Amino acid sequence: MECHHEVARVWASLPHSQWMLDAKLPAHLQGCEACHGPGSLHVVARKGYIVAWEKLSVAEQNAICLQCHQTVTADQWHSSPHGSRQMGKWETVAGSKGRRFPACTDCHEVHLPVPRRWMLKTNSSSLCLRCHADITEKARQGEHHPLDKTQCAACHDAHDGTVGGMLKAEPLTLCDRCHQRPDITPTDHTAEFRKTHGKRVEKDDRRCASCHGRDGCDRCHGLPMPHPQGFATHHTEATRAQPSTCQNCHDQNFCAKCHADAPPVSHDAPDYASAGHAKEFRQFGANAAAYCVTCHQPRQCDDCHRQKGIPLEVRR
Q: Phi, psi (5° rounding) for residue 120?
């Protein structure tokens, strides 16, 4: 305090600092020493023997903040792009043209008074755009929400990577907070669009991801989309748990293009008609009926069994 009295005077007036001066806190989390370490040797030797932040890696700096800020858990922080575990001393982000991972103090002012909540050095969007300048152009092209309508922090949590894109919730859930769904649904999303959209968009189409999220295709379809290589020969295994998934996009005529002359492999067994199909039906359990009607008409089982005179209790 004797050497840094002016800095200490201003610092002590801040709400954040007053909390750090609470005598109820453990000694190592009180005052200046909470961030800069014990100062007794520094007082004697003057230079050195103190934690100098400019000599710490970003990860080391942030770890000091995280020891107090339990609302930003280490797991949440490290799961986010901002808090990658691969951070090193002033290490740059891969492909970022020199931009490094952020330190807490890049956005939050800890020594001087500021007029904003959360000790932010400026408004949240300005802070974000210092690194994410490309968002301005993406917003202009309709690939991102307009920046003049709201702050980045309204949708994004800079400390949590639990949801893709560091969003506070799934995209459509966020949209519903401010918008009525019919007002923001694109005009080309007609009833026919559900059947044809696969031919019109790519998996990484940013227009789709801006509303449905980066894994929106997979979540909606219930399996990896677009179909991975070799899917045609292994689609039975992929859809066994959710047989009706295929019908979201395909009708029975589509299946017939292949299966009219090449039924499922299980159907090739010599005894499939007499016994094999019943065994397969039981293996599918609760999903059996849905699996069969993927190709067959719902009443085909009843019609066939009735024609052959097989009692109801046997075929169940």
A: -70, 140
